[in-house]
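Follow-up to my earlier ticket, as requested here are the two runs.
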Amino acid sequence: MDLNTPLITTLLVAAVLLFWVVGAYNRLVALRTTIGAAWAQVDEPLTQRHELLTRLVAALREPLQDDHPTLDAVLAASAQAHAASGAVRPRPSEARTVASLVLAEQVLATARSRLAAVLDARPELRTIDGMAGPLAELEAIEQRLAFRRQVFNQASHQYNEAVGQFPTRLLTPFFRFGAAGRL
């Protein structure tokens, strides 16, 4: 037996291990980048919805003089959701910030449902000049958001699966790959 055989074997094992670490790292980075791209597609309609809700509430201020608390709740919840989406923007794969956005979205959904109840109780408000367009646009934005959330959640799921798989899971603490949040 030659003395170089153990050395060659050790070098081969080290090379295989190094290639595996580099491959696993690159795969996780690529999946995290996919989450970022999916988030960019979610962020756009979130911003559009915030701007539209601001205009819609302003248009309803005069006709709904007796129901300003409902309008204020929609505005506050929209601002909170917009701020939460801004916090997600720099690190869309961070579960904590995505969880904050999910909570803000729930608050906004509650406020919007109260506004919808007010509009349903007073159908004449839906016929005010310029009101039908923004309401239809709001519905279209919500439909786009639903689809784009699915894409984001799918990207997060794939990333989380990769982070949780053995032996890649052994690398995640060293390179600070944590679980991604879902919308």
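Run two:
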Amino acid sequence: MISLVRDQVSISMLRDLAEAGFGDLVKGVVDVRLELIAIGGELHADEEALLLDEGSNQVDLWGINLYPMEFETSGWLEFDSMINVRPRQGNRTRSVEDPAIRERIVEIVGRLVR
């Protein structure tokens, strides 16, 4: 089940989601304009669709993976999703190539995950 994180989500809830799903990771899509995250989907595209239904713009949505068991390490947030491939925006890989967007994602995730 996909959840929208507008306020905060606990790291223990992310751990539970990871264990119930992929084992070690939770997929997420961050809206860098509205400053919210969709988590818990099987595919980033499913989370993206929910955010679009909620009024997000596709250009503001970026796929990430969270590894809650590594929360205290630098590798706990990964920029890797097929929805990030968008040549028209200058992003030609599954990563998030623009350093300013990456920084914005880190800031939003840091504020919403506790």
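The only thing I checked on run two: The chain has one domain: 3-112. Let me know what else you need.
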